[in-house]
Amino acid sequence: LLHTRREEPQAEQIGGTLPSVMGPRELRIKVVPILGAAFGGNYAYLIWDEDDPDRRAIVVDPADPYPVLRAAEEERLNVEVLLTTHWHFDHSGGNATFAREVPGLRVVASDRERGRVPALTERLADEQTIAVGRLLVTAHSVPGHTLGSAVFQISSSAAPAAPHAAFTGDTLFCGGCGRLFEGSSLQLHASLRRLRTRLAPNCQVFSGHEYADMLLTMAVRSDPSNLAALRKLRQVRDLRLRKQPSVPSTMAEECSFNPWMKATPLDLARLCGCEM
Hints:
Elements: E1 20-22, E2 28-34, E3 42-48, E4 56-60, H1 65-74, E5 78-83, H2 89-92, H3 95-101, E6 106-110, E7 122-124, E8 129-132, E9 135-141, E10 150-156, E11 165-169, H4 185-198, E12 204-207, H5 212-222, H6 227-241, E13 249-250, H7 251-257, H8 259-262, H9 265-272
Parallel strand pairs: 4-5, 5-6, 6-7, 11-12
Antiparallel strand pairs: 1-2, 2-3, 3-4, 8-9, 9-10, 10-11, 12-13
């Protein structure tokens, strides 16, 4: 019921977020706002190499398929791989339609997903990689929000020094993380530690929702001495006034101001409102 019909205009998100294209030629990223205001502002992503003559592309979490398909057409892209960060409807709900519209599409999720991701064709184990032209995708298993949650890190062999991009779904937001539906706080803490260890400080974080203003406001209210969060909040509000997405942040930023990223296991349990 929340899907945009094929010829329908896209429902406007809270704040009227506009689609945005960013990144170097070798790792171009288009942020596509989807699902209107239904879940507080979802993002799907298109990733491609501008110099690929075949215009091959990757899509992440196209839960409202037709606006994302239109965005791919606007960029003259041939989507070959769909990455699903986790099974929740507002991330995987467009998979079946997208696969029907794109014959031969590879639909990829974590190997921990069993029967819950629509149209799934491939499962990736932790740190397993696949390539799409010169783009390299590495899966990171991050149980917590759901047991099968994955973060997909994408880099370009044509620009090895360029910052990588991490598509974090609901595991890591700017200033926070997704609530626990299936995993424990200890699992989430281990998952966040895994990301801190594996992702470089300049790795760009592209989350699944536009929650930055809300989460950073909470961080500043709970700890007025968190000046890094206050500075980031001002940046985010400036972007949102101009209808720009707040993504990406960087891993270095998240480690400096995100209370969940800095928490001990006990502190994280308290932040999540659960027992150890």
